[in-house]
């Protein structure tokens, strides 16, 4: 069906009125079009919005994470692990939204040539997974400490005497530029480490999934997920800390503080006034680092503030757990039941296989999928939550320096500059600090940022096409299907919506099996999660593990 239908050409997408010139907000290599060869390449591919990661328009600075995985995923697929059928993922931006296009290996001979390299390199990781993953955690923890050690403060009127008397020879202005470069390097390194394991983890799961779908044609994806689940991973720890704090509030007689509509700051201030409150605050301090470095969203945007910055999110969850405890309900994770269900499902499906060879293959593929599963889930805490949260805190320090020197009006204005533009503004700042004159950016960035704010507002009001270009007859690329849910059927559904006269309906992915009717609560900002009422249906552009504490209400 899709072979006879197509989406709009990516180079023909019209500019939204009032946003003319928006392209300068992003690097040139993210633009569609250019010369005829490039346009021919782009027009003959399918490009779809990466709504899994970016359901909203992309702020210029937040693009750093997309740039980071643009490089890291592609290099590991194409140049390092040599994944046989899959190369990298190409990226573009139009009208503020990121479109991606996975690049496959078209030549069967090339696929065949890549197989032995993949088996050798990936096999080494699968065989030594536990040891290498333990080393990975240490690398990430050290990298987060490295980021946390970077600090930006105002440039002094008189530089440090050690530069003279200890022969340092490097100014504070130079050090600030160096620190910014260091911070950006750390951000890119985060994602180098991220992709060291991730696609190998997905590849193991995809291989197991392909075997099961051939052996059991009617198997549901949820069954496959249950077969590899049931393990205790650190991603559950932030939620466990909230449960611990809820129990402490009940035991110390502090429950009402969370139920009378006070803000987190008011609750904390009241806690300071009693011995019971101080005991609770001690536990709170113990839980904060690292578990409150949990993004309130997905961690891909600067305004997905972590719990430390937006205590409304975790405190709302604590309130929910307190209410459940006082109602006599359990707030424990049903780990034993999940494990029992996992083992039962595995035994049932293994028993359906007809040959000993198939049973052996099933067991081996399942064992690898279960071994890699913790990383597939846990990396989110280390990367998108903890490291991204600390990184954004450091950028806000630098933004405050910009505010103090008059380059921008507000700390949050810095996100309207791309990372290379921040470097230019910083160099302008230290040069004019050194010279003793007003920064040139004072006249340049403030009106530019105001214009960009208006552009972003128009981007948000716009409903972009779900895809552009020409879809394949059949979607076969495994990561496209598994990670983004882009299937042949999904593309047909998008085309149906694009061609329909009545576009007043919502299309998306169900998060739970079955059907239900009820009141839908649309959540666009994680702060609004506190508004969810018991029994409502959550509708959101995307969800996050950090929302787990509120799922019991749904």
The residue fraction in helices comes out at 40-55%
One letter per element, helices H and strands E, the order comes to: HEHEEHHHHHHHHHHHHHEHHEE
Integer count of domains:
4
Spans of at least 5 consecutive residues with low confidence? none
Share of β-strand residues: 5-15%
Please tell me about this protein's structure:
With 554 residues, the protein is mainly alpha-helical. The protein folds into four domains: 2-115 and 462-499, no CATH class; 131-231 and 354-459, no CATH class; 234-336, no CATH class; 520-553, no CATH class. It has 17 helices and six strands. It has helices at residues 36-43, 63-80, 108-127, 129-148, 162-165, 172-215, 221-228, 237-251, 264-271, 275-291, 312-326, 335-352, 356-404, 419-435, 441-461, 478-484, 488-499, and strands at 46-49, 86-94, 97-104, 467-469, 520-522, 537-539. The strands form two sheets. A four-stranded antiparallel beta sheet has the order 2-3-1-4. 34% of the residues are buried. The model has no long low-confidence stretch (mean pLDDT 91).
Provide the fold topology.
Blueprint: H1 36-43, E1 46-49, H2 63-80, E2 86-94, E3 97-104, H3 108-127, H4 129-148, H5 162-165, H6 172-215, H7 221-228, H8 237-251, H9 264-271, H10 275-291, H11 312-326, H12 335-352, H13 356-404, H14 419-435, H15 441-461, E4 467-469, H16 478-484, H17 488-499, E5 520-522, E6 537-539
Parallel strand pairs: 5-6
Antiparallel strand pairs: 1-3, 1-4, 2-3
């Amino acid at each position: 069906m899709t072979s006879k239908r197509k989406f709009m050409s990516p180079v023909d997408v019209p500019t939204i009125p009032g946003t003319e010139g928006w392209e300068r907000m992003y690097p040139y290599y993210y633009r569609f079009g250019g010369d005829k060869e490039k346009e021919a390449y782009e027009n003959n591919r399918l490009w779809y919005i990466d709504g899994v990661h970016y359901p909203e328009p992309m702020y210029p600075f937040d693009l750093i994470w997309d740039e980071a995985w643009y490089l890291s995923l592609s290099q590991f697929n194409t140049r390092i692990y040599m994944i046989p059928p899959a190369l990298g993922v190409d990226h573009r931006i139009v009208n503020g939204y990121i479109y991606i296009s996975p690049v496959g290996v078209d030549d069967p001979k090339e696929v065949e040539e890549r197989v032995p390299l993949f088996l050798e390199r990936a096999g080494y990781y699968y065989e030594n997974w536990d040891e290498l993953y333990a080393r990975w955690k240490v690398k990430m923890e050290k990298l987060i400490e490295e980021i946390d050690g970077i600090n930006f403060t105002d440039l002094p009127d008189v530089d440090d005497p050690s530069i003279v008397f200890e022969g340092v020879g490097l100014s504070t202005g130079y050090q600030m530029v160096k620190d910014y470069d260091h911070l950006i390097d750390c951000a890119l390194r985060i994602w180098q480490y991220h992709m060291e394991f991730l696609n190998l983890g997905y590849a193991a799961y995809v291989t197991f999934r392909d075997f099961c779908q051939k052996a059991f044609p009617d198997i549901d994806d949820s069954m496959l997920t249950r077969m590899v689940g049931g393990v205790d991973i650190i991603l559950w720890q932030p939620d466990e800390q909230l449960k611990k704090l809820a129990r402490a509030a009940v035991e110390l007689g502090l429950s009402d503080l969370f139920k009378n509509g006070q803000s987190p700051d008011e609750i904390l201030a009241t806690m300071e006034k009693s011995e019971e409150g101080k005991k609770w605050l001690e536990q709170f301090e113990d839980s904060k680092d690292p578990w409150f470095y949990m993004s309130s969203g997905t961690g891909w945007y600067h305004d997905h503030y972590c719990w430390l910055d937006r205590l409304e999110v975790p405190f709302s969850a604590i309130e929910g757990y307190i209410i459940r405890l006082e109602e006599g309900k359990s707030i424990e994770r049903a780990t034993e039941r999940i494990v029992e269900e996992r083992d039962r499902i595995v035994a049932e499906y293994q028993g359906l296989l007809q040959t000993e060879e198939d049973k052996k293959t099933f067991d081996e593929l399942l064992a690898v999928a279960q071994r890699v599963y913790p990383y597939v889930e846990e990396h989110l805490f280390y990367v998108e939550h903890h490291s991204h949260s600390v990184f954004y805190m450091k950028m806000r320090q630098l933004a405050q320096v910009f505010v103090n020197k008059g380059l921008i009006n507000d700390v949050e204005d810095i996100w309207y500059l791309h990372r290379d533009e921040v470097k230019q503004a910083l160099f302008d700042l230290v040069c004019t600090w050194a010279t003793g004159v007003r920064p040139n950016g004072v006249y340049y960035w403030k009106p530019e940022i105001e214009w960009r704010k208006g552009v972003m507002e128009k981007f948000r009001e716009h409903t972009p096409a779900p895809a552009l270009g020409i879809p394949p007859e059949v979607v076969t690329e495994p990561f496209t299907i598994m990670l983004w849910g882009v299937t042949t059927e999904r593309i047909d559904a998008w085309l149906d919506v694009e061609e329909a006269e009545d576009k007043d309906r919502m299309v998306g992915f169900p998060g739970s099996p079955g059907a239900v009717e009820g009141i839908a609560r649309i959540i666009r900002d994680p702060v609004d999660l506190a508004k969810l009422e018991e029994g409502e249906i959550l509708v959101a552009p995307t969800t996050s593990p950090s929302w787990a504490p509120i799922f019991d209400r749904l």
